[in-house]
Amino acid sequence: VSPVLWKKVLPKLSAGRVQSVATRIVVERERARMAFHTAEYWDVDGTFSPAAPKPGDPETFSATLVALDDIRIASGRDFDSATGRAGGDVLHLDEAGARGLAARLEGRPFEVKRVDEKPYRRRPYPPFMTSTLQQEAGRKLRWSSAVVMRVAQRLYENGFITYMRTDSTNLSGTALAAARSQARELYGDAYVPAEARTYTRKVKNAQEAHEAIRPAGDTFRTPGAVANQLSSDEFRLYELIWQRTLASQMADAVGTTVTVRIAGESVAQERAEFSTSGRAITFAGFLRAYVEDTDEQAEKDDAEKRLPQLAARDSLTPRAFDANGHSTSPPARYTEPSLVKALEELGVGRPSTYASIMQTIQDRGYVWKKGPALVPSWVAFAVIGLLESYFARLVDYGFTASVENDLDDIASGERSRIEWLRRFYFGAEGETEAHRISGQGGLKRLIEDRLEQIDARGVNSIPLGDTGVLVRVGRYGPYLQRGDSTEASDRASIPDDLAPDELTPEKVEELLSAPSGDRELGTTDDGREVTAKSGRYGPYVTDGENTASLLKTMSLDTITQEEAVRLLTLPRTLGALNGEDVTAQNGRYGPYVKKGTDSRSLETEEQLFTVTLDEATALFAQPKLRGRQAAAAPPLREVGVDPVSGKPMVIKDGRFGPYVTDGESNASLRRGDTVEELTVDRAAELLADRRARGPAKKSAKKAPAKKAGARKAGAKKVAKKAAPKKAAAQT
After folding, report:
1. Has residue 531 got a pLDDT over 70?
2. Domain of 358: which CATH number?
3. How far apart are CA 419 and CA 407, in angstroms?
4. Is the backbone of residue 477 left (phi > 0), alpha (psi -120 to 50) or beta?
5. Could you tell me if 259 and 246 lie in one domain?
6. Do 373 and 317 share a domain, yes or no?
7. Which of 231, 251, 271 corresponds to the end of one domain?
8. Residue 422 and residue 385 in one domain
9. Has residue 699 been placed in a domain?
10. Is the N or C terminus of the chain more exposed, i.e. has fewer CB atoms within 10 Å?
C-alpha cells in the first residue's frame, strides 16, 4: 500500500498494519475537535458553615448549585458537541441569570436536606506490563514511549528488573513472597492481606511465558539501596516499578464517601439545592506505597475532601455565593500514554511494537507534538482519507485486531504462515467477513482495482466545513485555497505550528487576507527597487540583482530602506592581507571576517559595517577558537530548573536551530515547539528523551581513497565486473 501513497499523496510515506490504525485514531480525534461547538454555561458556588460546628471540623465548606425549583442545572455533559445546545429537561443558566440568582440567595437561611454515606474500597493495581508501564511513566515522568523503553532496557540489561516486553500481570511465587515480605517489613502486617493477590488478563495469546515487570531477584532492592548504581532516569523508573510491584500485594484502601444535599429559598421563593461530596480514607492500604496517575479529569477527584460532621435538618449559615462561567471543552487530544491505552483496548499491536509505532508516526510526519499532545498533520488527513475511501478494511479496528489474532495463531503453530499470506495477498473464494480482503481477490487485486480510481487531487483536498475553502496537501507543504480559484490572493500557506482544529473560519480569512509578506522599501540610487521578502531559508532583501539575508536583530515588519541598502553591500571588502582579500560577511552562524579559507567571528552585527582591515588583521593574528573555547552566545530564553539535574534550563540558538540545554545535555526543539512558549515540562521531556538515547555515536571515518596507479605500458584492458556493494565496502 505504501507505493500507492507515494503516487497519490507524497513520496517517502508509508502505510502499516498498526501505524495506519494509530494515525487514524489521532486523526479521528482531531476531526471531533474540529467539529466541536463550544457552549458557555454558568453555575453558582456557595460557601457555607455549620451553625453549630464541632471541634476539629473545618469552619467552612463549598457546594455547587445542582437544581432550581426541582429542575436540574445544566452542566458540561448536557451539551451536544455538534450543536453546542443543551439537551433534556435541564435549566441552562447564562451569566445574567447566575449573577442574579447569587444575589437573591445572599443572607437566606439554608439547611441540610440529606446526607448519604457509602463505603469506599479501592483495590491495588496489577504489576506493570509493557503497555501500562509506558502509560504510567508517560503520565508521571512525562516521558515518551521510546524513552520509557530505552531506560527499561538498560535496567533489564544491568539486572535490576525483569524482562520489559510482556503482556502478563502474573508474578512468580518467588516474587509474590518477596513483595509481601518487603511490604510487611516497611508498612506493617495490617497492610498485607492474608492471601497473595493474583491478577489475570483475559487476552488471547498473552505472553504468559514472561512475568510482569518487577524488580529482579528473590528479594527486592529498595530504590535507596540502588540509587548510587543508577542514573537519575533509571532511578525514577526503577522506583516506579518497585512501588507498583509492592502495592499490588498490599491491602485495599478503605474509607467513606459522603454526599451532602443543602436546600434553601431565594428572596423570590426559588427553591435552590446545592450538593457537595467528600471522601475520608480511614485505612490507606496500598496507597501508602503507590498512587496511580490518570489522564481523565473525572478520575482526579479521588483526593480527600474534608467535610464537617453534618446531619439532616442541620442549620447552615451561607457565607458567600459566586456565579462562575464555564465553557465546554472538545475531547482531549491523545498523548503517547493514552494512545497506547487506546491501541491496547482495541487489541491492536503488541508490547514490543508500541514504542516504535509512537516513533514511526512522528518520523513519517503524520503526527507532531504540542507539549505532550499528539497533533495530526494535514498529510495524515490526506493519507487516512485515502485509506478510508479506498482501503477501508485495512484501517478498520476490528479487522486489524483479528489480524493480530491470526498472527498469534501463526506464531503458536496453529496456522500456516505461507497459506495465510497467500490467501491474504492473492485471495481465496468463500472467505468470512473477517477476511473480506481475501474474498475480494486479495490485497494484490484490491490495489490493482483501486489504484486507477484514486483521484490524487481529491484525496489531497480537505474541505473546511462549509467555508468553501480547502486545505491542499502539496509537495512544499499544506496550503489554503478558496474553491478552485487560481488567484494568488485566494491561496495562503498554513503555518507549520498551527494545529488543524485551530484553523477556524476566522483564522482562514486572516491567512487568506494577509499580505504575501513582500514589502517594497524604495529604490536604490541607480533606480533598482528594493524589496523585503520571506523565503524558504528565512527573510531577505533584494534589489533584483543582489540578495542579502536579514540579520538576527532585524524583522520583515520593521526593516527600513537604509538598512536594506546597507545589507546589500555585503560581503564588504576591507582590503588585502598577505595577497588575499579580506571581507566582512554575514553567515549562518553570525557575522565574521574571511581571508581565503580562514575566518574569525565578529562580536556584533554592527561590526560588519565598521570593522577595518587593521582590526581584522589583529583578529587573524589570534589563534582560532573552536568548540567550547569560542565565546558563547547569550541564551534566547531561560526556561526554568530541570527536575532531573536540578540545573537551570535555557534555550540557545545552535547550528541546527534552537535547542534546550541544562549545561550537560542538549536537545533540539521539535516541530510545534517555539522558543517563546516552551514550558518547563516540555523542556524537561526533551532533555529526558535525549539522555535516554545516550551519547551520539561517532560515525567511522572512511579511509582515504587510494590514488589510481599509472597503468603500465602495454597493459591489456580487461572489462571489470561490478562488485556487489557489500563486498566493495569490505576492507
Report:
1. yes
2. 1.10.460.10
3. 12
4. left
5. no
6. no
7. 251
8. yes
9. no
10. C
Rounded to an integer, what distance in angstroms lies between the CA atom of residue 567 and that of residue 554? 11
Q: Which grid coordinates are listed for 520? A: 517594497
Using alpha carbons, list the distances in angstroms from residue 727 to 102, 178, 679, 702: 84, 54, 50, 15
The string of pLDDT tens digits covering residues 643-698 is: 888 888 888 887 677 899 988 889 988 877 788 778 888 888 888 888 877 666 55
356-407 pLDDT, tens per residue?
999 999 999 999 999 889 999 999 999 999 999 999 889 999 888 888 888 8
Query: Which of 120, 156, 163, 425 is flagged as catalytic?
Result: 163
Grade residue 629 by pLDDT with cuts at 50, 70 and 90.
very low
Note the pLDDT tens digit of each residue in 579-588: 899 999 988 7
Is 158 within a domain? yes
Whether residue 238 lies in the annotated active site:
no
- The cell for 656 is 541546527
* Domain count for the chain: 6
Residue 565: how many other CB atoms lie within 10 Å: 19
Find the domain containing 649 and state its range: 637-693
Domain with residue 73: its CATH number is 2.70.20.10
Phi, psi of 616 (to 5 degrees): -65, -40
- H or E element: which one contains 340? helix 336-346
Q: What H or E segment, with its residue span, contains residue 140?
A: helix 130-141
Q: Is residue 730 part of a domain?
A: no
Q: Is the peptide bond before 571 cis (omega within 30 degrees of 0)?
A: yes
Q: Are residues 154 and 243 in the same domain?
A: yes
Which whole-number Å values give the CA distances from 728 to 706, 719, 722, 725, in the listed order?
A: 14, 17, 9, 5
Residues 383 and 11: beta-carbon distance below 8 Å: no
For the chain, give the mean pLDDT.
Answer: 85
Task: Give the orientation angle of helix 19-35 with respect to helix 378-390, to 10 degrees.
Answer: 110
